[in-house]
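Handover notes (outgoing to incoming on-call)

Open items:
1. Cytochrome c domain-containing protein: sequence verified, structure written out, both below. Nothing else pending on this one.
2. Nothing else urgent.
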Amino acid sequence: MTTARNIFARALTLAAMVIVVMLFMRLFTSDGEMTSAQKESPSTSMAKTWSGEINYAPAYLALTPYAKRQEKGHSSKFDPLDEYWGLPRSDGVENVSAYCGACHSLQIVMQQRQTHEGWDYLLTWMVKKQGMAELTPDTRDEILDYLTREFGHE
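Cytochrome c domain-containing protein C-alpha cells:
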C-alpha cells in the first residue's frame, strides 16, 4: 500500500510540475506558441543590421571643446551640436525626437536599419515592454513612416 501511495504521489507531483511549466509558458507567450518576432529579440535584430562602424567623433567633440565638428560628408548622421541631434529633417522628425529621445539617445535610432515591419515591432515593444507613452494612430503612423523612410534598409 505504501508503495502504491508513493507512486501515486510522485505521479501527482510530476503532473503538477508539468502544469506549472505549461502555465509559465502561457504567461510569457500570447497563446503558448512563440511567433517569429518573439523568437528573435530586438537586440538580436538590431545586431544583425548594424554596419559594424563605430563613430568616435561625438565623444571626441564632447571632450575636446576646441575641436570643430565635421561638415557635410561625415559618415554618421549623429551630431550632438544639432537641434535634433542630426535627425534628417522631414515629416515626423519632431515626433521621433520627442518620443524616442525622451528615453534614449537618438544615436540609437540613427544607427538602426530596420524594415517597416522591424520598426513596427520595435515601436510595439517600446510601448508594451519599455514604458513608452501610448501613441495615437496618426502619431504612430507618422513615426513609423519617418523611421522606415530615413532609417530603413538601404
